[in-house]
Write a structure and sequence with these properties.
Helices cover 49% and strands 9% of the residues. Helix 10 links the parallel strand 4 and strand 5. It starts with 5 loop residues before the first strand and ends in a 5-residue tail after the last helix. 49% of the residues are buried. It folds into two domains: 154 residues, Rossmann fold (3-Layer(aba) Sandwich), CATH 3.40.50.1000; 66 residues, DNA polymerase, domain 1, CATH 1.10.150. The chain has a five-stranded parallel sheet, with helices on both faces. The protein is an alpha/beta fold. Helix 1 crosses helix 4, helix 3 crosses helix 4 and helix 4 packs parallel to helix 6.
Length: 235
């Protein structure tokens, strides 16, 4: 066994749903019902956060006078729409199954975190399992008492995986929120720039230790982290 103890993967845009189309399209359809056009960039800006918080931040830009009751109303509309749209965006991204097989060959535990609710993630995880991807644990914000950018899902994943320390964990995701989650947990962070919501420059500015295109590039990045750990370096 190497020095890395576990890898924590994001879902939409990192392992499934190339482009994170399911949440983006749902947000756009939701606001279109109210006569509001939301650009792709605006829909993606806060991707990775718990969905209610994502809507709250977007609504604050669209209508600064909106109060919490407005957030409640939009979120109540959003949930059934998202559950429906998810079923059309369950494809596992190419290279993910092979990348995960390599992680298991290295005796690494594989966790996952998300901005989806449990009801949403259950749909996504069931579809991924049918395609050969099944992490050792799948944590949602309500499991941990809060979502990104807080590190709580990472802490719970560590407990579920029975691995430590967090400084020997690697968090992999396609959003600024993913990177913040990993950094706040004291883990190494790897941004994925070609399959999700944020480009290479954005992920680097968010503080990612490494940025790769897809999970096909993860193994050599883990090798570099192993070298750094062996030298006594920490995230």
């Amino acid at each position: 066994m190497g020095m890395i103890r576990a890898v924590i993967l994001d879902w939409a845009g990192t392992t499934v749903d190339r482009g994170s189309l399911a949440p983006m399209r749902t947000i756009q359809r939701l606001f279109a019902r109210h006569g509001i056009t939301v650009s792709d960039d605006d829909a993606r800006r806060d991707m990775g956060l718990p969905k209610r918080e994502h809507l709250r931040r977007l609504l604050a830009v669209i209508d600064p006078a909106a109060d919490e009751s407005a957030v409640d109303a939009y979120y109540a509309e959003f949930v059934p729409m998202q559950l429906d749209v998810l079923r059309d965006h369950l494809d596992v991204i190419p290279h993910v199954v092979d990348a995960v097989a390599e992680l298991r060959r290295r005796d690494l535990r594989i966790g996952s975190t998300t901005g989806y609710t449990r009801e949403m993630l259950d749909i996504v995880a069931a579809g991924a399992r049918e395609q050969g991807y099944h992490p050792d644990c799948a944590i949602v914000p309500e499991d941990a008492g809060g979502g990104r950018p807080h590190p709580y899902m990472m802490y719970l994943a560590a407990a579920r995986l029975a691995r430590y320390p967090l400084s020997a964990f690697v968090k992999v995701g396609d959003t600024q929120a993913d990177i913040a989650e990993g950094l706040n947990a004291g883990a190494w962070t790897v941004g994925v720039s070609e399959t999700g919501s944020a480009n290479r420059e954005t992920l680097a500015r968010a503080g990612a230790h490494f940025v790769i295109g897809t999970l096909a590039e993860l193994a050599p990045t883990l090798d570099e982290i192993e070298v750094r750990l062996a030298r006594g370096m920490r995230p």
